[in-house]
Amino acid sequence: MKRNSLPFCRFSVWLVFTAEILRGVESAQGKYAQMLFSELFGDYSNALRPVEDTDKALNVTLQITLSQIKDMDERNQILTTYLWIRQSWYDAYLKWDKDEYDGLDSIRIPSNLVWRPDIVLYNKADDDFSEPVNTNVVLRYDGKITWDAPAITKSSCVVDVSYFPFDDQQCNLTFGSWTYNGNQVDIINALDSGDLSDFIEDVEWEIHGMPAVKNVITYGCCSEPYPDITFTLILKRRSSFYIFNLLLPCVLISFLAPLGFYLPADSGEKVSLGVTVLLALTVFQLMVAESMPPSENVPLIGKYYIATMTMITASTALTIIIMNIHHCGAEAQPVPQWARVVILDYMSKIFFVYDVGENCTSPQRVKAQEHKLRKDFKYQKKQDRHEGVTSQVSRNRNNDSDLKKKLNGHLNNSNGIQCENAKDAVNCCSCYTVLIKNIEYIANCVRDHKANRAKGIEWKKVAKVMDRFFMWIFFIMVFFMSFLIIGKAI
User: What is the pTM of this model?
Assistant: First the structure.
């Protein structure tokens, strides 16, 4: 038992000894850090550039790490981002020999104790002009200072919504010194682009890069050059949300416009359907307009809405015209000959519009010709009958006049019984004349009624054929517009 406990005791003693040594080192470093801080900042001033030669420029290395895109306000054209800004430079008055301070090579001190470059975001769009976050800086023995500070920035971004919701945006973040020119402070890129290794994926935007470019600009107010670094944030919108909430409802609603031509004209809902669809699209158009900036560039989905609304307005106007054609009655003119040939003969076959009892295999032209011949034959027969009746009436009238003359001649030489027979014959002929007139009137009324009814049936068929024609035309237009909008998405 004693032999087994001996290694454990040795290990415990070693741990205690090691802890004491580390504690002594820490206390020693803390003591040397206090001494170093007192010696460095005894007569140090953070108001002046820390260079030994004032004619030389101080190089500041800038590195931007994009952590998150918090918001993109298209209407106000403001991009809100969460950045980690790293700046590093060399301070000529904050150096020491680390061997004299027990190997102490770096210390961390508040950033407001040292000189800091006044690098700001040029295109800032925030009302808050507060000072940078006073995080600690890391000061190394060779005078290198590294300052890491988080920042939530609001920058102006020119938003082009021409292809919304399938648009790409490029937003610039321009950093530069506000008061120091290029001869005093020079800015150097730490990397060729912004650091995206810690980027948190956004639900609305995909980031495709953040290249950095250094610019040297001479402004009109000053002759000295002013360098700056511009980070271009390349963004692509995730369009799934807008496809399912704005685009697909519009496409489905637009398919109702051609179906309005398929409704029967006697249903009374053709015009109301078009007006309802137009109001629905107006609501979606207002939703898009509220989120877009008031610019001359109309977004792609807005153009689609306007084109669809124009199409529905045209379909509603055509529906009203076709309904007027459908309800043409006895007062209307007969169907023109060109309309009979083009609409009733050819277009009715193309769009499969048939009368009751007809189908696509029946020879409509032969039937039409037979119907026309039959109609001409009946009309000729009625004309002959009418001419026969008219000639018979004239003959009866002549016979009546001859009969009256004969009766008048016989009245002088006849007795009372013969006179009574002659009067009965005259009355009988008059009754036949009145009866023939009434029959002619009834026949004319029936003929006119049939002609008006046939005229109304022809106009209704013309309206039905036009309904089918415009239905397919508008279906093709809807498919074409939908294909264009989907092609932009792909």
Answer: 0.68
